[in-house]
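Ticket #4471: structure export looks truncated?
Reporter: QA, pipeline team
Priority: medium

Steps to reproduce: submit the single chain below to the structure queue and open the exported record.
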Amino acid sequence: MSAEPPADLGPLPGGHHGLSREQIVDSQRERLLAAIVEEAAARGYRATTITEMVKRASVSTRDFYELFDGKEDCFLAAFAVVRDHLEDLIVRSAAAEEDWPHRVIAGLRAGLDFFAAEPELARFCLLEAVSATPATAIRFREAVLAGVPALSEGRAELADQASLLPETEDAILGGIVSLATRWVIAGDAGKLPELFPDLVDFALGPYLGDERAAELSGEARPSR
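Actual output as written to the record:
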């Protein structure tokens, strides 16, 4: 499954289509992952049924259970694909920058732009993953905490690294996710990049001080 649920994956042609069993299974899995993203984003995880998923994916219920243990297993697989894609996107964007503050800025921009362009995935990842099941909530939490090491590199900017509480990075990431989630709930996922300057200020302030963080966040504001 690509990060964007493929819209052109329909049922396989009948008869001798020339596809190997492996290709067929890959296609079925891809369509089911796309289906659970679409269904969960539209209906919510709890209202999503395997019946509707397999119908949307043009896959039999029997084939579904050959690929996944159940709805939760399918959800977790889809979440992992999106998470890995987003992590790669953020890492590559940050790697193009020479210093830590601009790596953080690039990573924030990449994440906001991604979800703004994919509001369905924003709902799936930021809303449904948190509340679907305890297992999905744990995976979501792990995905957020994966950003701690990169953010904690900012401690090197401080004269006294002990001046920051150990949970600072956790709190910053949680605040960023919480604010973005509120916008998604309000139906404003497409406007997430508008949060960019404020999130830059929020993320960099504890490490660079308010004045420098405000300067960098000012650079991030679009000119009017």
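Status: closed, not a bug. The export was complete when the record was re-opened. Leaving a note from the reviewer for reference: The first helix runs from residue 21 to 43.
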